[in-house]
Write a structure and sequence with these properties.
The protein has 134 residues and is an all-alpha fold. It is 60% helix and 0% strand. It contains five helices and no strands. 21% of the residues are buried.
């Protein structure tokens, strides 16, 4: 469980930074602030300022790999104490997934998948894939 939590914290920090640099900024900010308001309301103002500072850093060109990685690690350190309870981790996962979802989705029109293999096996799946036997 500890390894799963560690992996989730790493992913959460990276996701927060990625969303802050995208059009989903407001949804990601709202999700993070809602988590903080629920668990540590006294820190909401400072976290809001840190989210804005991260966004500013990202939008003013500091998007080289090392700078983005440093920002993600900083958010991992901030999120780690909050995500120690499974319910909090699940709440943030749902909130960040909702923030990353397209704002307006129309009806699905279909899926077109193509593949070409020249050597070896080629597996392609639109959703779940089961490979039985070898």
């Amino acid at each position: 469980m500890e390894d799963d939590l560690s992996i989730f914290i790493q992913a959460a920090g990276s996701t927060v930074v990625a969303l802050l640099a995208s059009a989903a900024f407001s949804g990601a900010k709202r999700a993070v602030l809602e988590l903080w308001a629920r668990l540590r309301p006294e820190e909401v103002t400072s976290i809001a300022a840190e989210l804005e500072a991260t966004r500013t850093t990202l939008t003013q060109g500091a998007q080289d790999d090392q700078a983005v990685q440093d920002l993600a690690q900083a958010w991992q350190r901030r999120l780690a104490p909050l995500l120690s309870a499974e319910s909090d981790a699940a709440a943030l996962r749902r909130a960040l997934a909702a923030a990353d979802a397209p704002q307006e989705q129309g009806p699905a029109t279909g899926v077109r998948m193509t593949a070409e293999a020249h050597h070896g096996n080629n597996f392609q799946a639109g959703r779940d894939q089961y490979v039985i036997g070898r």
